[in-house]
Amino acid sequence: MPIINIKLADPMPSRQKLDEIAVKITDIMVNDLGKKPERVVINFDEIRSDATYFGGKSVQAMKEGK
């Protein structure tokens, strides 16, 4: 059973977009690895952009062009 965790900085995509992504990832697991679709687990986690840093700069600051 593959368990796939995807972390995205806020804001999260729409529910419709998350559904589309989940279907595509499930298809890859089924078609390329032979997994059963009902056993593929995908979890989207939202992380705060103001609490995530690259090289000492927050993702929020980078989005704001600072």
UniProtKB/TrEMBL annotation:
Q: What is its EC number?
A: 5.3.2.-
Q: Which domain of life is it from?
A: Bacteria
Query: Which of UniProt's keywords are assigned here?
Result: Isomerase
Give one GO term, molecular function aspect. isomerase activity
Asked if the record carries the keyword Isomerase, the reply is yes
State one Pfam family annotation. Answer: Tautomerase
Q: Which InterPro entries does the record match to this protein? A: 4-OT-like_dom, Tautomerase/MIF_sf
Q: Where is the 4-oxalocrotonate tautomerase-like domain?
A: 2-61
Per the UniProt entry, the signal peptide is none
Please state what the protein is called: 4-oxalocrotonate tautomerase family enzyme
Q: What is the lineage of its organism?
A: Bacteria, Pseudomonadati, Campylobacterota, Epsilonproteobacteria, Campylobacterales
